[in-house]
Amino acid sequence: MSLFVSEYRVGPITLLELGERWTSDLIGELRERMEELELQGRQLLLFDCGRIIIIDSSGVGALVRNWVSLAKRGGSLKLLRPSPRMQEVLQTVGLRKLIESFDDVGDALRSF
Fold first, then answer.
1. How many helices (H) and strands (E) does the chain have?
2. Distance between CA 47 and CA 80 in Å, rounded?
3. Model confidence at 112, in pLDDT bands (50, 70, 90)?
4. Which residue, 3, 20, 85, 112, could crosslink 26 as a Cys pair with Cβ 3.0–4.6 Å?
5. Cβ atoms within 10 Å, residue 54
6. Which residues fall within 8 angstroms of residue 27, CB to CB, at 6 or more apart?
7. Inter-residue contact 48 to 80 (CB < 8 Å)
8. Which domains does the chain have, with CATH numbers?
9. 47: Cβ–Cβ under 8 A, 6 or more apart, which residues?
10. Are 55 and 87 in contact (CB under 8 A)?
11. Which of 40, 38, 47, 57 is CA-nearest to residue 19?
12. How many Cα atoms occupy the beta-carbon half-sphere of 107 within 13 Å?
């Protein structure tokens, strides 16, 4: 199983549609993709999290690391359509107010 289902570019924004699981066994895939995007100068990322049903502590840690890393480089990482499970996890760990999330793709794209 792959972390990423698809990838789209909308001007300077890269939209990454995530699969059902964001877990420790998929973190390496995320790290590799983020390195590739950084080399390409892609610093505005939107993660579509609508399919996520499982996210573990490694997934949360990776989300925070990438959010912080992008912010330090002048970039931004935002979430689109976080699934109910993702919303629950973000609320529990106190990230809901830090990492912007949107239900509408148009609103999310305009926010950059």
1. 4, 7
2. 6
3. very high
4. 3
5. 14
6. 58, 59, 62
7. yes
8. 4-101 (3.30.750.24)
9. 16, 18, 77, 78, 79, 80
10. no
11. 47
12. 8
Q: Which of 84, 70, 65 is nearest to 20 (CA)?
A: 84
User: Which tens digits make up the pLDDT trace of 43-89?
Assistant: 999 999 999 999 999 999 999 999 999 999 999 999 999 999 899 99
* Tokens matching residue 72: 């330090």
**pLDDT surpassing 90 at residue 4:** no
Which stretch of DSSP H or E encloses residue 109? Answer: helix 105-110
DSSP summary character for residue 100: -
The average confidence (pLDDT) of the chain is 93
Q: How far apart are CA 36 and CA 49, in angstroms?
A: 20
pLDDT at 87: 92
